[in-house]
Amino acid sequence: MILLSVFIVFLILLLAGLFLLFDFYVVIIGHLKGAPYVPSSRKRVRKMIELAELKPGEIVVDLGSGDGKILIEAAKLGCFATGLEINPFLVWFSRFRAARNGLSGKIKILRQDLNKYSLNEADVVFVYLWPETIDKLSAKFSRELKPESRLVSNAFSLSGIEPYKKEDNVFLYKSSILKTGN
Question: Which of 5, 133, 139, 170 is deepest in the core (most CB within 10 A)?
């Protein structure tokens, strides 16, 4: 009986430690790297997908892909989706979700710094990051996105650049606008 009690206490402490480690990654590391994990509602994901006007075969990149909701919805529409996420727990969880939805062949989730990933092939880029992070990425967007690419930002706009469309606090930019700054 004592051995069982010790095991239960050990298990509780282990789970608490894992929770604290997860919390550390989500809050501290996420905040320092661009934005903490804040899941988007299904309604917001639908709005982002709608504004992007995704077409089958397009290449979609989600910078800070979190739980993979956007990637899954894009892949269901026939897109090839890549998510970049720094949190190893969320990378594992989103890969699990992609597999559970039978979309592993259409979704790639990388544990990688979003600054080091080339956007040259992307047709659509999704972001849900702090405004300061988005602004730091503006030069990257301007430099790397193809002329016909689209950028969809959840909740935060790009400083000084008028979006092509805005609905329900979701902002759509065309890369040609990003390159000229108008």
Answer: 170
